[in-house]
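Appendix B, Record 12. Input sequence as logged:
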Amino acid sequence: MNDVAAVLVVGLGAWRLASLMVNEEGPFGLFERMRAWAGVPRVGIQEPRPFIGGLLSCVWCSSIWTAAGLWAVWHYLPAGALWLAAAAIAPIVERWVHQK
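Logged structural output:
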């Protein structure tokens, strides 16, 4: 696979993982529990943990780190990165189809 395709796969996978961590419950409520542990506020004002709370409250912030980690995964286990990239396509299509 060429470099442009690799960047697209890793980018889609990194977005999906970052979006999961910031916006969704995750399997067995894992990401919701992580955000609660990090002090990410759901309702009201709460002070999040400095680094982890920032990562779990902002897709743009967490995507930097998920992309770095996924780039390393890509070199050792490309199927893992491809799986996350494929998982990113469904929510993108869902939003596109249901846009008003």
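The mean pLDDT is 83.
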